[in-house]
Amino acid sequence: MSWQLTDDVETFIATAGDFLQSRPVENTNLLTIVDTVRRRGRNAYGPGVPIFGWWSTPGGRVAGVLVQTPPHPVIFSQLPPRAVPAAVEALGGHVLPGANLTADAVDGFVAGWRNRTGVRTHIVRRTRLYRLAALTPPPAPPPGRACYAGAGDQGLLEGWLLAFHDEIGERRPDDPRGMIEDRLDHGGVLLWEDGGHPVSMAMRSLPAAGTVRVQIVYTPPVHRGRGYAGAVTVAATREALDAGVRDVVLNTDLANPTSNALYQRLGFRPVEDRVIVEFTT
Fold first, then answer.
1. What are the C-alpha distances in Å from 63 to residues 27, 138, 156, 222?
2. Residue 118 — left, alpha, or beta (φ > 0 → left; ψ -120 to 50 → alpha)?
3. Above pLDDT 90, what percent of the chain?
4. What is the dihedral of CA 218, 224, 225, 229, to 10 degrees?
5. Strands, sheet with 2-6, edge to edge from the N-terminal-most edge strand
6. Residue ranges of the domains in the chain?
7. Which tens digits make up the pLDDT trace of 16-51?
8. Helix H or strand E encompassing 129
9. More confident residue, 170 or 110
10. What percent of the chain has pLDDT over 70?
11. Are 156 and 198 in contact (CB under 8 A)?
12. How far apart are CA 281 and CA 274, in angstroms?
């Protein structure tokens, strides 16, 4: 049993692609990251050389993976217990800004990494992955309608994207324009308009192994409390279902009870919890 690392996304996909697609709900974030690097190049998320890794059993079966796209934390799939301390050793020659692991594995990896490198660690965010069971729209939707964002909305979307990251305390994307353009290319941004003016947005990932993730649901503070976020989430979810995907998922910040309650009312059910930890010298 051992970890193997590479900086080549095609080698990673050839080896670990079947593992990723075997659990597309739990691996939704990893599938999106790998697809984005494959389509947009190794620096799609920022400068620096990415790391791709897989944990193999003695029989050669892949049973866990990791991906790190600098300057972002390394993100792990669900892992067998033995893979956690072994990951500390395998990544020992790298400088990591942080780690994103399932709640049952985070303490073991973080303690091992702290002991090995001497870094300080602190929890940035606790998240929950939800999967749609049965879509349950609000009984009284807000006024307005959903529509696809277009090139003319680029500036608005960039501003909202940056505001979203600032609000949740997450690093801003290095290339917000490129990120928005990538979403617009596949109709991946829905707006809710009221009175002809955009008041909320929801983005969605490209389908991966029959799964789409609704993400970056944002309503400017001045428009909150009117049901726009729920309405645009329902619209994005319906759009994905109409396209024929098997599962629709989303991630939430567990520190935000409002969004967690909203998504459960809309028919999403918990799948797994994760913890994002930052490392500092």
1. 12, 40, 42, 46
2. left
3. 91
4. -20
5. 2-6, 51-56, 62-68, 74-76, 98-102, 268-280, 120-132, 247-253, 211-218, 197-204, 189-194, 145-148
6. 2-118, 132-271
7. 999 999 999 999 999 999 999 999 999 999 899 999
8. strand 120-132
9. 110
10. 100
11. yes
12. 23
What's the helix, strand, coil split of the chain in %, to 5? 35, 30, 35
Kindly report the number of other CB atoms within 10 A of residue 242's CB atom.
Answer: 8
Section 204-215 average pLDDT: 95
Strands 120-132 and 145-148: unpaired
Task: Find residue 218's DSSP bridge partners.
Answer: 201
How far apart (Å, rounded) are the C-alpha atoms in residues 237 and 247? 10
- pLDDT for the residue numbered 172: 87
Q: Three-state SS across 157-215?
A: HHHHHHHHHHHHCCCCCCCHHHHHHHHHHCCCEEEEEECCEEEEEEEECCCECCEEEEE
Contacts of 219 (CB under 8 A, 6+ apart): 199, 200, 201, 228, 229, 232
Which fold, 132-271? Aminopeptidase (3.40.630)
